[in-house]
Specification:
CATH architecture of the largest domain: Beta Barrel
Oligomer: single chain
Largest sheet: 4 strands, antiparallel
Strand content: 5-15%
Shape: rod-shaped
Number of strands: 7
Order of helices and strands: HHEEEEHHEEEH
Strand order of the largest sheet: 1-7-6-3
Structural class: alpha+beta
CATH topology of the largest domain: OB fold (Dihydrolipoamide Acetyltransferase, E2P)
Radius of gyration: 40 Å
CATH class of the largest domain: Mainly Beta
Number of helices: 5
Number of domains: 3
Length: 217
């Protein structure tokens, strides 16, 4: 198109003079249509990516109370929902009882070892091996009980921590997009639906960067 425009200009002006008279200056097609270098884009805008925070529940978790509703704005620290901790509290009590039982077993085994050690000192030589064997067996039982105690203690600590964190709070700023109390299956994807979804809002810093980019276009 640029070549055609120049040919038309030459035909209308007689091809131009050698002495520089009757010379016309033509803009390029890019300059006319606004696509040339150095032009400003007249159609500005900002494309924002929106992320979603999805909260799911384990199979053994139940929700006792929901503190928000669909469409509500939330900030970091806003209470979202609270777990039903009745069964968890019972599990914690049972775990503490088992720890106490293991402690009593270890104490009893140590008492037996102390008694056998005393008897061994006055026992004849023919019975020394028998006493030694009994003491070693009891010592092995103590080691096993000590291991059981550590395992059970970890379980109790996890249960205690879960109880202390029974209320779930938002870690982001956003809008509650959906609440699925029944947690069914997404008909379009076939995947399990999250219990709660929060549509993240763009933070202030990101907005300032977007505004800055828009002003530069």
């Amino acid at each position: 198109m640029a070549v055609i425009a120049l040919i038309l200009v030459k035909n209308l002006t007689g091809g131009g003079g050698a002495d520089g008279e009757n010379v016309l200056y033509a803009d390029s097609v890019g300059m006319i249509t606004g696509t040339g270098l150095g032009t400003q884009n007249r159609f500005t805008g900002v494309v924002e990516a929106q992320d979603t925070l999805k909260l799911t529940l384990a199979d053994n978790q139940k929700v006792k109370q929901i503190f928000v509703e669909k469409g509500q704005e939330v900030e970091p620290g806003t209470k979202l929902f609270e777990y039903d901790t009745e069964e968890l509290a019972m599990t914690l009590d049972q775990g503490k009882l088992e720890l106490e039982k293991i402690t009593n077993n270890i104490s009893s085994l140590n008492s037996q070892i102390a008694t056998l050690t005393t008897e061994k000192k006055s026992a004849p030589a023919s019975e020394q091996l028998s006493y030694t064997t009994q003491i070693q067996e009891l010592q092995m039982e103590i080691k096993q009980e000590e291991y059981n105690y550590k395992v059970k203690e970890l379980e109790v600590n996890r249960t205690q921590k879960s109880l202390e964190q029974s209320t779930v709070t938002s870690t982001v700023a956003g809008i509650v997009q959906e609440i699925n109390e029944q947690q069914g299956t997404d008909p379009s994807t076939g995947e399990s639906q999250p219990f709660m979804s929060i549509l993240l809002q763009e933070n202030t810093e990101s907005k300032e960067r977007s505004a800055s980019r828009t002003s530069e276009i």
